[in-house]
């Protein structure tokens, strides 16, 4: 072993260690590359996106349907209140202005058309809701909620319950069989306003979309503590997804106002809405 200029021995530097470190780095890089996930192809990304859409879109659309139904409730309430206001003004209009009476009757028909349009729209919403519940997303949304306008034929409108009731309040003569129809409809309406559970006039009426039956909120809540089936005799549907029954709500409110109005003198009184419902647990 050669010595240095100072006569001391020098230890040779080994190059193997540097070379070994380089090999270890290369090996580590190869392992990292093997452990990294393979980048997805465009086709794979398309599948992932499609699955995510199928998972999230039905839920988002159900929320849209729920919001649309809430708006439908508000629109229907306004239409029914408009019909009631026109009917309440009919006796006064008959005394002071036949022209105003005609306008009020025409307004009632317009409200009937509006209610019919809302009904068609609600049917479309129900169809869409059922599709989404089954996990089926429509392939196209064009004209999905497009509805046909309610028939404008006067012969059809004149046979509607609201127009018949308007004529009855205004004292407009109709055919005898039509007058009898009005009485039958009023009787049926009174009977239908009774909760099938409490057997009293409903308070906070709610409807079961599964079968279309309506119950008093306090009554159905008590019933659901024991059974999940519809309490109406012969109905086997389950009670779920209850929603406010705007039609019944307005009908009961109208009846309450009619009973308290002077024009209702002599009419048969039924149990008042303000009476507390009694439930047997």
TrEMBL record:
Residues 23-32, 272-281 have a biased composition (Acidic residues). Pathway: Protein modification; protein sumoylation. GO terms for cellular component: nucleus; Smc5-Smc6 complex. Keywords: Metal-binding, Nucleus, Transferase, Ubl conjugation pathway, Zinc, Zinc-finger. One of its GO terms (biological process) is protein sumoylation. Residues 178-263 form the SP-RING-type domain. This is SP-RING-type domain-containing protein. SUPFAM superfamilies: RING/U-box. Residues 1-41, 262-281 are annotated as: Disordered. Belongs to the NSE2 family. GO terms for molecular function: SUMO ligase activity; zinc ion binding. It comes from Aphanomyces invadans. Residues 1-22 have a biased composition (Basic and acidic residues).
